[in-house]
Design a protein that fits this description.
Helix content is 36%, strand content 14%. The chain has 392 residues and is of the alpha/beta class. The protein has two domains: 2-321, TIM Barrel (Alpha-Beta Barrel), CATH 3.20.20; 329-392, no CATH class. The N and C termini lie far apart (42 Å).
Length: 392
Amino acid sequence: MAKTLRQIHKVELHQHVDGSIPVRTIWRLMKQHRLTPVATMREMRRLLQLQPEEEGSLLSYLDKFHYPLWITQFYENIQRVTTDIVEEAYAHGVRLLELRYSPAIHTYAGLTPRQAIRSVLSAMNACRRRHADLEVGLIIISMRQHGPHIAKILARQALAEAQHLHERCGVVGFDLAGAERGSPPHLFREAYEIARVGGLGLTVHAGEDEGPARIWEAIDLLGADRIGHGCSAVQDRALLRRLARDKILVECCLTSNYQTRAVPRGTPHPIYTFLERGIPVAVCTDNPTVSGTDQTRENRLLLDRLRLEEIARIHREAAEYSFIRRTPSLVARGYRVALGENRGEEAGEGERWRIPSGGSEAEAVDLRSGARGRTRPEPRQRGARHGRKGRA
């Protein structure tokens, strides 16, 4: 069965670079730089991977991220770890991979944010050249603890490497991560507006260690296209209806959620509720090294309640919510999309928006849902069309 699961072509939409570096790669680079804090790779694994006695809080989980930072402050090291992450995912059947990464925490030794972003993208592009059947893209993360001003800086840096502006894989999305408490999403609204106007996909870590209100903020105020984790959504029936109606995908990370107690051990994961309510989902690893998991293991957890063909369908449908564009870039098309000069043209495979012949940008058609309007939705306003009034 494991072999069959591995053969399913998988879609990974929520995987952090820093929490995914193979232990052997970290160990080799630490030895190279004479930074090994312990004597053996086995001891190093215990420092990098969450142990059973350490489970129970998001902060304990996040504490596992500081050792990789010792060796990911240099361009060539970031290239090396990214290559190994992509190859490991590919070995487990991942054929569409969105990695996510916070460049701000990789600038302590002198790299600029732009260089930190390019180091990951250069490795991803090299992997893509080796594997013709692999699609890759990068989501830039702003850490909550760095505050809203840094978030705006990173949003602008992300746009400089946006996929739709280059003839290669690039930045496809923007994310907000880190401990939720004390850093509500609405503080980061300006950064998300920069990313939205620039054409990036929007996702937000929300509802992992806070209640449904944070998910509502992410949707209504930040305009999130997808939600990372979203576990507390099951506490709010109106929110479940909203996620289903607007087809907002939830990036589900089963092992990670049990480890942080976002989902109590012994209880069904919210992914099953999401599926029952018609909410799109993706099966994600979050941090394979920290959680001691991979795509094969995450999908095996679903076999208790889902058939193999149902799992395969989840991955096929999740691909439709990827931020990776499957159409020619704006550079290749002479910026015709941005200028609205492609009126009346046939949409390419996977293209999301088309402007009808003789129409304006305001009449653009969303080829996924049939909706008409702007080529990117405005942030949803709480209390307006999708307000909280009348929720059951």
